[in-house]
Amino acid sequence: MRFAVLGETSVRTEDGQPVRVPELKVRALLAALLVDAGRPVAAYRLVDDLWGDEPPGSPLRALQAKVSQLRRALDEAEPGGRELVVTRAPGYLLAVPEGALDAHRFAALTAQARDAAEPRARAELLGEALSLWRGPAFADFAAEPFARAAADRLEEERLSARETLAETRLLLGEHDLLVGELVELVARHPLRERLRAVQLRALYRAGRQGEALAGYEELRALLADELGLDPSPELAALHTAMLRQDADLSLPAPVQAPIPASVAVPMPMPVPVPASVPASVPAPLSAPSPAGGSARGNLPVPLSGIVGRDEAVAEVTGLLRERRLVTLTGPGGVGKTRLAVEAARQVEEAFPDGAWLVEFAGAGGELAEVVAAALELRDDGVWGLRPDGQRPPTTAERLAEVLRGRRALLVLDNCEHVVDEAASLAELLLRAAPGLVVLTTSQEPLALAGETLWAVEPLDADGAVALFTARATASSPGITLDASAREAVRGICRRLDGIPLALELAATRVRALGVHGLLERLDDRFRLLDAGLRGAPARQQTLRAVIDWSWDLLSAPERTVLRRLAVHAEGCTLAAAEWVCAGEGGDPAAGDAAADARTERTDVAVADVLGLLVRLVDRSLVVAVDGPEGPRYRLLESVAAYCLERLRDEGETEAVRERHLAYYLRVAEEAGPALRGPDQRRRLAHLDAETPNLRAALDRALAATGGAGPGAGAALRLVDALAWYWIMRGRLGEALRSATAALRAHPAGGEAEAPGLAALRARVGVWRTGLAVMGGDGTDRRHRITDALAAYDAAVTDAAVTDAAVTGAAVTDTALTGTVGPTDATDATRPSSTAPTPTPTYESAAGRPWARWFLAHALCGTGSQVEGGELTGSALDGFRAHGDRWGEAAALADRSVQLLLRGDVTGAEADAARSDALFAELGDACSRLWTVYPLATAAEIHGAYERADRLKRAGLAAAESFGLTTEVPDLLAGLGRTALLRGDLAECRTYHEAARDRAAEVGFRAGEINAVLGLGLGARREGLHEEAERHMRQVLDWHRSVGLDSANALILAELGFSALARGDLAQALKLQEEGYGTALTSGDPRAVALALEGLASAHAPAGRARGAALLLGAAAALRASTGAPLPPAERVDVDRTEAAARAALGEEAFATAFAHGGSLAHDTAVREAAHGS
Predict the structure, then answer these.
(1) Beta-strand pair 325-329/91-94
(2) Is the dihedral of CA 971, 972, 978, 981 positive or negative?
(3) How far apart are CA 839 and CA 191, in angstroms?
């Protein structure tokens, strides 16, 4: 058997099947024995571990009974298992076989790593050791006194291993990747000096000396403030060395390949380039990690163990191993979600591609987007390039494609709100992905063929008592239950029908009433409520009665906050609660049907909201969940539904939803500019967390449209504020759909239209047009772009208003400004003030360059460099005229790629360098990725392969840290390209295979093709011509299917070289001639030069040596005109052709023909070569 404590305590048989250990006390016994695995534990100590200050009447007999239960469980799972629990004075020991406990394996691997002399071997051993961890040590018993010391020791060993691994990777030259990966770890352990030292060295070696020095100062201040200490002598010496820029801090020797790393976060939209370019230009870059992958799963770690559901968990996990669609049904409050999550956690190791929880509570009809977001999939990877006339795949279709061939588990929670849509999506995914298993929770079945229903019943008597007791003791520490009290508890559990939510709500009242008082109050309460609830099913009556009772026990301010919280989707921050829940009661003019029945109109001060929330959390009516920006407050589904009813009864629904809209509109508009600066990571994380609320706010704004009212203005403003965020996160489908909906909801032409709203509508029109172009919608593309710009220019001219007038255009109602709200602007969760938020100032002439740049950016992203180039130049001039440095940097980044593809390497490098410097000054680390491709390409053209590698690795680390999953494959392919130019064909293959696999993982077909191209280039240089031709034919066919014929010059040249190697001279010449014709359409002189060299290679062995020399001369002259000579690693074909022509002509004749070719126009050289000898 195998035992695990590096996470939740668990046991598995030799063949990997989980062992069910019944009852909490028996599992606690197992954990206590595992703390001292292999050593006897005294019986008296085990009694204390299991029962604490309340031992049973016969403690040793009770302990013996638990030991027997543990032995039986082990023996039933694997014959002979009972022999592992050995009776040995002074108590018992668990005879864990060698290597059967994950903590022992972890210790053995870390010991081997310490003894490993070679850094890479050490890193691999440490990586294997750390992969054993599934969560905090003894996660389910870490708070128990018997496990605390062992858990703390193991956590310290884990952290030490992570520090050693970081130091080792630093030796291996992985500083660029470490910079991003260490941020979170250092934030959790800010006073850990060894960890800080690794981070400072990584920053220094990554060229970020200023940040390294600032990091030291931050640590020094922390040590002084919190501990009254100075940094250690070692850290002080490191600081001095950084100030002096000592040679000892220089980079280590580069390694052959980076250690696989797994980091992840979010993105901007780098300028995509056609998936293939001439051989002298490396494949386009984009972003992420060498051989990692996305995080495998997102199941939450519960704050406490599941109680009373052992048999249910075992049955559901059994179904998940045998069936592909399992639905847990049952009424609200019965514990479906908790059971589903626990069952998924029990089987997640069986799903190598992850177990994923997707919450549908509050979701609209686009469920596929909710699933894609949970799986961290972007939808930009399938946009742009696709076969002519083919619509872009829907998000659901893309999900199906990505999940095809995967072994994954999806947990779709709360499907009853969207049961038809959930059923359609589940059916599509299950048909497409044979390895997929779907577990859903719903109050009604999905009604699909093959669906297995499992009804979640209330807890049985023992389970209900255990849950109630656990929650009561948690909320009332020190409570003791004598025999009389235990009988009262049983009575409470019977009265509440064993419904978990009802039990948890009631348990919070034990501190005030005691269990006898609670039982008495419940009996009274149910007698009063029975008459009014007779029409409802019994269990619904019970839950409703308990929620009603909990509500009645609240103060008026507590009720006010609770019901107003219900408008939030999937919780909110304290700042949001203060904004939405504070202020006056319902609006008497709201017109609700229940207006006459309102019973309270309570003012709640902003300063009181936190205290009220804390009290509601104590009563289990509100759940507080830790988030990256502090706690988030959410309601359970049953409580939320109840509170929405109360909100309607008070006539507050409209007013509170307007406050919700006002708050999230302000959040979006204040975050927009910050996404382009140093605070972008924090703002991205905040918008990620608030995505459900932002969607709800947009739905509200769209529903409130009509005439010239404020709702339509809010919808347009929300789309305008969030468009760039959606693009950064790769949610292009959501962006396009939202822009279209906002524009439809508010068509032009309203007589009472507020000033400036036309300009806002025109701006959203530009967003929509650009997004459609990114989507590959080429229908009348030029006309639609022209129309969008004309509409925007006209709206700007017509508006001719000041910023203040523009503000009034969209904010004409106090409902959109909010009547209350915080004034503290210290964090991203909190809008800066209660004054109306000005809309962005693009309604002035300063917005015109933006409109041109964005549409050009969209065109360039789909390969239309020439078409986009005209707009880019105009935008650049406009940005400079208006002093817009971010706009200038963005336009320069785009123009650098355009120049590069036209063969102007010097101009491209200058533009990219200026763009990179501007983005660095502005603190926009994400957009700096746009400059990696042109800068690295220029470095390769100049033969500076080390610099190219460094740029790409830095881009890779940044892209990983921003979660740019469609960027990763291209950057990996870029590293493979540099390896090819260095002549390292093994590394070239490794990187391109990794790129292909990563692209396939996220459904990024263009990235796959780019990687296949690299594999083809490498295969031919390895002499594997059949493999090379197979790869190149695949690329050729795909390029033609998506209308990228101009990118095929390289592919046709490569196929021609392979045909020549096979001795098929006629086919070689045909391919090279076709390649030359294709190169002429590309606009890139380097592509033409390559085609001339290809033609020369076909002429030389066919007896046309002079023609070959002419063509080589013309190609050399063309390359010289661009400042981009052929790299040495790419001269093999040219050198072979040149040698053959020299041998046939002699030195003098060859030199004459070569020089003559250099003086000719390339088309003249082609004609002469075809007729020469």
Answers:
(1) unpaired
(2) negative
(3) 43
